[in-house]
Amino acid sequence: MSFVSVRDVWQSYGGRPILERVNLSVAEGEFISIVGASGCGKSTFLRLLLAEEQPTRGVISVAGDMPAVEPDRARGVVFQRYSVFPHLSVRDNIIAAESFGTRLGWLWGARLRAARTRADETLGRIGLDHVAGHYPAALSGGMQQRLAIGQALTARPRILLLDEPFGALDPGTRVQMHDFLSDLRAQSPMTIFMVTHDLAEGFKLGDRVLVFDKPRWDPHDPGAYGATITYDFDARHGGIPYHHLREKIHEPTHA
Amino acid sequence: MRLINRKPSRPVALLLAALPFVAVAIAYAIGSEMRLAVNPQDRLLPAPATILDTAIRLFTEAERRSGRILLWHDTGASLFRLLSGVAIAAALSLVLGVLIGLLPYMRRSLSDFVAVLSMVPPLALLPILFIIFGLGEVSKIVLIVIGTAPVMTRDMAQRVIEIPREQIIKAQTLGASSLVIALRVVLPQILPRLISNVRLSLGTAWLFLIAAEAVASELGLGYRIFLVRRFLAMDIILTYVIWITLLAFLLDWMLRALSRRAFRWAEAGL
How far off is chain B from A112, nearest CA to CA, in Å? Predict the structure, then answer.
């Protein structure tokens, strides 16, 4: 049984199909990159995974749970912008991942102290311990995104959804963020979906690269058909699966 | 160099800021001088020295009949009405604004109603308020609330709607309930806006306060001004006007200081 399963999902707005016949099955711990032209439905697909929207038809299930009707703690998310809370200090942003789940959203006493200690550990791991007391506005774009990822992971989601997380960063910072994300994955395996405009980024980070496109095209009515997954590349080993395939002959266990 | 790129240095800036005040004061002094030269009994533009004498008398000397310094009693009564009215309006607009901005069901049922309500000219309702609540404090406070709350509510709701969708979604993925989102994501972010709304609506609130006091009252700054108008006591009127202006300025300054102190995170981005 796959960890995330998408079965025959259709999504349309006001009768206009955006996605059609999307089928996908993802194993636990896989990093899925999603690429495609603008308006091909990849952000829609991410919103469906996030349960911000419900598919018109079809079922999306994460970790064998019932299909979600709204975003919950099983899903972590990092957007391109506005992913952290500007009115909370860097440390409080991490603590929020624990306190927001309580009745009134505040932690007190021993629980707060424990959460603070854990938050400082997290900040040390993501290299933000020197700005723990600052507000996000004082941080650079890369640091804000690191904070956003740290915050999302503190809530221990089953899947992490990244919506063009590095799109607003300069190229140097972007490479740093790639290393940061790879390091985090090496420490603790997690299932990640990342929408990106950058093909190279998608292949560099992803285990699989999904391409969204419209398989059917009516030149008289470009909006007549929706998009679906047209390619599903194996992006491990630099996108060259050949060596991997040969090794399999000697190692019958599934990788 | 283009005009838009010319900036005054600090001393010049101070001078320029003082200029309009000085100009008005000089214009008044000249006008007063000219009228008094023709008719020493003229009451329309009393000399600045006369106004100062009157001001000192009003601030320090008790009225003979009642033994009270009326100006302070007027100030107390007016500030009580003004601040209660604005405080109630602010609290109301905060609660309604968050509900309308955050909950689609509330938005459907209330936002059009509040929009229509804000179109009603509050002063036209004053007679109704006097009939319902009598001539006491309640009708004046209610007038201020009716006059300022709907506009503030609309603005607060708009600010809540403008909070990026990403933040609301993010809070949900961290397990926040609607209540937690309202308390910990929305509320702290719109409080600075509430303060600036209060600052903006204080001007309107003064208008309604003085209008209500002018119509029916027995104490208050607006009441006093309209009372002494009958005797053409311009020196008293001007003292009261300057005093009201000063009070308004101090209130505004205090709110701004509070906002700066309490919402450091909002300043950090500027």
Answer: 16
| CA triple B153-B157-B162, angle to 5 deg | 145
Residue A95 structural domain: 88-134
A234 has a pLDDT exceeding 90: no
Are the beta carbons of A229 and A210 closer than 8 angstroms? Answer: yes
Our CA-based measurement puts residue B154 at a distance from the nearest CA of chain A, in whole angstroms, of: 23
Q: Is residue A109 part of a domain?
A: yes
Which pTM value belongs to this model? 0.85
Contact A86/B189, CB-based, under 8 Å?
yes
Does the distance separating the beta carbons of A157 and B189 come in below 8 Å? no
Residue A36: name the closest of A241, A231, A181, A222 by CA.
A231
One domain, residues A198 and A223? yes
Mutate to test the interface with B, among A87, A135, A156, A164 (most CBs of B within 10 A): A87
Tens-digit pLDDT profile for residues A38-91: 878 888 999 999 999 999 999 999 988 888 899 999 999 999 888 899 999 999
Q: Give domain B71-259's CATH superfamily.
A: MetI-like (1.10.3720.10)
- Compute the distance between CA of residue A172 and CA of residue A130 in angstroms, rounded to an integer: 21
Question: What pLDDT was estimated at residue A176?
Answer: 87
